[in-house]
Amino acid sequence: MALDCGCSRVYPDFVQQMEQADLLDAIVDVRSRRFLRSVRHPRLILRSGWRLAPELELHQKELRSYVLGDAPEAVSYPVGQRLVLDWRQRAATLLTYCGEDVQEIRLDLDSLEVTDNQIRTAVRSREAVR
Question: Where is 78: in which H helix or E strand?
Answer without folding.
Answer: none
